[in-house]
Design brief:
356 residues; alpha/beta; Rossmann fold; Helicase, Ruva Protein, domain 3; Arc Repressor Mutant, subunit A; 3 domains; 11 strands; globular; disordered N terminus; binds adenine
């Protein structure tokens, strides 16, 4: 499997197909990319998904047919791109990675579709942000593996049906609800990725530490896992940060104490909350009596955009039970008050609160 998102791949692709501009594929030569598992055994967690995928992949191989289109959804950092890479690797095919915001013009998506080879996987991240025109180009491409193109103008216009190789589209989104139903209906499999347990994250941490060649104890891995908000991307980032501390301030080995002290310095608390999360909860408590308050108001007060709050901060705060979503806005839960060491406003005050 080759992930065509490196410089060489882009150059080659741009030469092969001049319609595709290199920048339509995102560069992803990051640390995250270098530690991505390539097979089901090294992909930790998401057990139900892995079991289903193993069957689907085996069936497709035996039939000699490409895989059905798949949609993965869930909060960021849970491994949607990673599992797509594992699928490609297990099928022995290439994966083209792009994201909906970079498919702005029709020719962006057309260029990519035309450059695909049979069996290849096209991965579109943030697929809920695909524009209408790109979506309509995708419908026949997904359903019949054809591209319907119009040439000429008004009366002389002709529709051209261009056959495409049979490919598999893997879409990823944090917001499945924002996908139009015609697009959603064209996926043969739709799966929600779940937050990871502490045990699963501890395994992710141990695996990453091994790749980074840093010694880590069970306690050290668990301490990092507990503060990783159920998210392997965060766990991996924290391993790297803590290993910096271990090398510079300690004896190069991560144990429970090194992990806890380093994460305290980094201001990641025992729930994994960072300064922004705590600022969000404190704002609702201090300025709005614990809520409810609208997301726009929160975003403006924190100078963050609504999308970052909705996609990055909120999913875990909701899952951890620190924040609640109500029809009238966000509320800090009793657990949220306790976590910040605050007292709940008394029932009496709340009954007559002007903010309610
Ligand atoms: N890195 C990111 N996600 C992972 C996973 N699910 N298993 C192992 N390493 C990972």
């Amino acid at each position: 499997m080759a992930i065509i998102s490196d410089d060489e791949g882009l150059e080659k692709r741009a030469k092969r197909n001049p319609i595709v501009k290199p920048e339509t594929i995102e560069y992803d030569n990051t640390f995250e990319n270098s530690i991505r598992p390539k097979d089901f055994d090294s992909y930790i967690g998401q057990t139900a998904l892995k079991e289903t995928l193993k069957i689907i992949l085996e069936a497709a191989k035996r039939r000699g047919k490409p895989l059905d289109h798949m949609l993965f959804y869930g909060p960021p950092g849970l491994g949607k791109t990673t599992i797509a890479g594992v699928i490609a690797s297990q099928m022995g095919v290439e994966i083209r990675i792009t994201s909906a915001p970079s498919l702005e013009r029709p020719r962006d998506i057309i260029g990519i579709l035309m450059s695909l080879k049979g069996g290849e996987i096209l991965f579109i991240d943030e697929i809920h942000r695909l524009n209408k025109v790109a979506e309509e180009i995708l419908y026949p491409a997904m359903e019949d593996f054809t591209l319907d193109m119009t040439t000429g103008k008004s009366q002389t216009a002709k529709t051209l049906r261009v056959p495409l190789p049979k490919f598999t589209l893997i879409g990823a989104t944090t917001k499945a609800g924002e996908l139009s139903s015609p697009l959603r209906d064209r996926f043969g499999m739709i799966h929600r990725l779940e937050f990871y347990t502490v045990e699963e994250l501890a395994k992710v941490v141990e695996r990453t530490a091994k790749i980074l060649e840093i010694d880590i104890t069970k306690d050290g891995a668990e301490a990092i896992a507990k503060r990783s908000r159920g998210t392997p991307r965060i766990a991996n980032r924290l391993v790297k940060r803590v290993s910096d501390f271990a090398i510079v301030k300690y004896d190069g080995k991560i144990d429970g104490r090194v992990a806890d002290e380093s994460l305290d310095i980094l201001k990641i608390d025992e729930f994994g909350l960072d300064n922004t999360d705590r600022a969000l909860l404190s704002l609702i408590i201090d300025k709005y009596d614990g809520g409810p308050v609208g997301i726009e108001t929160i975003a403006a007060a924190l100078s963050e955009d609504v999308r970052t709050i909705e996609d990055v901060c909120e999913p875990y705060l909701l899952q951890a039970g620190l924040l609640q979503r109500t029809p009238r806005g966000r509320k800090v839960s009793p657990e949220g008050f306790r976590h910040l060491g605050r007292k709940m406003p008394s029932e009496q005050t709340r009954l007559f609160s002007f903010d309610d």
